[in-house]
Design goal:
alpha+beta, binds glutathione, Glutaredoxin, 120 residues, four-stranded mixed sheet, single chain
């Protein structure tokens, strides 16, 4: 079962690599303005999780270079996710709000919508 899981993960990564979307071309000023809007966002993910791949592809498609933490390979990241978000499930977006609070957003569709909303 673990082997099948591993092989499926590698296939997902290969297809993702082969069909990786292009990021939009922007001036450094435009990109800096977008980066500023995305400050305070961190994506907790697994490399080969299909829902995480979906979010990372959306990030690439819109040119949203959000900080990512691999909760599979980095035990510290996994601990932060469970302590903050309440469960070890990925993808999860950690959102630092303007009033200094922190929110944890699970569900890939909601995460993509949140990131798109930041650029709208
Ligand atoms: N509906 C969720 C599914 C996420 C999901 O199932 N993630 C898996 C990894 S591929 C996971 O974290 N499973 C652990 C768990 O559910 O406890 C989404 O779209 O984000």
């Amino acid at each position: 079962m673990k082997l099948i899981h591993f092989i499926l993960g590698q296939i997902i990564l290969l297809v993702d690599w082969l069909t990786s979307p292009r990021s939009p071309k922007r001036s450094s000023e435009e990109q800096a303005a977008i980066d500023a809007r995305l400050a305070g966002l961190t994506l907790y993910h697994y490399k080969a999780c299909p829902f995480c791949v979906k979010v990372r592809r959306a990030m690439k498609r819109i040119g949203a270079p959000i900080q990512t933490l691999d909760a599979k390979r980095d035990p510290g990241a996994a601990e932060q996710l469970v302590a903050g978000g309440g469960k070890l499930k990925v993808p999860c977006l950690r959102i630092e709000t303007t009033d200094g609070g922190v929110e944890w957003l699970y569900e890939s569709d909601a995460i993509v919508a949140h990131i798109n909303g930041k650029l709208a």
